Every structure is written in C-alpha cells, then in structure tokens.
Amino acid sequence: MSAIKYLALTIVAGIVLAALLLILCSTPSSGVVMKTIEIKAPVERSFSYMADAQNWAGCLPASVSDIQGQGEGQTWRFAYEFGLPSKMLEQDCAWVEYEPGKRLLGKCGNTGLNDGAYTFIFTSVPGGVTRMVWISEGSSYFPAAISATSLGREWFSKNYQKYMDDFAACVKKGIAEQK
Predict the structure, then answer these.
(1) Where are the alpha helices (DSSP H) in the chain?
(2) Secondary-structure class of domain 31-178 per CATH
C-alpha cells in the first residue's frame, strides 16, 4: 500500500472516530427514573423536610454546598463523581416550583438550569403517612456517554436505582428523627 493511501485511510478513520465521539458526548438523552416511597409522617412535615436542601444534603453521594435561601428560589450546588469512565460533575440547582404540601420541582444544570429536574409529589395516605413520588429526569442524570450504549444504560440504571433507594432510606430516617 502506498504511503498516500495509508495516510488517506488514517485520516478518514480519524474523522469517523472523532465524529462518533462527538455524537456520543454531545447527544442529549432524556431519561426518566421514578421512585415512590411511603414516609411515616404527615405531608406537612415530609414536605418541609424536603423543601430545605440543608436537611437532605447528607443523603447524597455528592457534596452539596453554597445553599442559599429557603423555599421557592432556594439554590445549591452539587458536585459528584459518576459515569463510565468516572468524571466530576458539578451542577447549580434551584427549587423553581414550590407548592406547599404538594409539589417541589428542582432544576439543575451546568449552564443554566436546563439539564435536568427533580420533581417530588406529596400525597397524604391514611394513618398520617406521606406518599412521595420522586421523578428524576433529563440529560444531567443520563449523560450521553453513558446512555449511548446498552452496557452504559444497564450500569447507570442499576446504580441510579441504588442511589434512589439509599436516598429514600436516608430521607425517611431524617424525617422520623426531625419530630
């Protein structure tokens, strides 16, 4: 094979590889994960606990810092490692919708608050119990580099479910101790 053909094939292969990497790393993914938990506490107490990021910051496998304000408009910063391969992800977050005793919507992102969202919906169940539905959605929770492959999606799904289970257990404990 001539040197020119070899060089041309190498350049074409490099362009194809670069395009593939660009697609994998920039394609947004719109994953949604949902978890429902029951908390042995009235809705008002459960909502009040979740509405303040300071309460549940220790429940996350992340550092939560720079918590500012209270209620609607409260802001905080997440910093955590995740993914394959592992990378540090930092996000600014805020409660952008706040319906006392009913619903919280927190948005997070690296460039504005458009990358993903957490929604918590609270309903009262007989016996002084709160049913809290937690919906996590958006590209910040399903990075394209992970969700682009079936292996990545499987890994992320298993790990994210564990994260949600651990978070739910910690929140339930925190609310019970808050009495």
Answers:
(1) 3-26, 43-50, 53-56, 144-147, 150-178
(2) alpha beta
Q: Choose among 35, 22, 105, 38: nearest CA to 71.
A: 105
CB neighbour burial string for 98-110, b if at least 16 within 10 angstroms, e if fewer:
beebeebbbbbbe
**Structure confidence by residue, pLDDT tens digits, 87-116:** 667 788 899 999 999 999 998 877 555 577
Residue 26 main-chain phi, psi, to 5 deg: -120, -10
Cβ atoms within 10 A of the Cβ of 45, count? 17
Per-residue pLDDT at 131: 94
DSSP 8-state secondary structure symbol assigned to residue 33 = E
**Cβ neighbours around 56 below 10 Å, total:** 17
pLDDT digits (tens, 9 = 90+) for 21-43: 433 343 344 567 788 999 999 99
* Positions in the chain whose pLDDT score sits under 50: 12-14, 16-29, 140-149, 151
Count of CB atoms within 10 A of residue 58's CB?
9
Check the CA dihedral 119-123-125-127 and report its sign.
positive
Domain edges within the chain: 1-28, 31-178
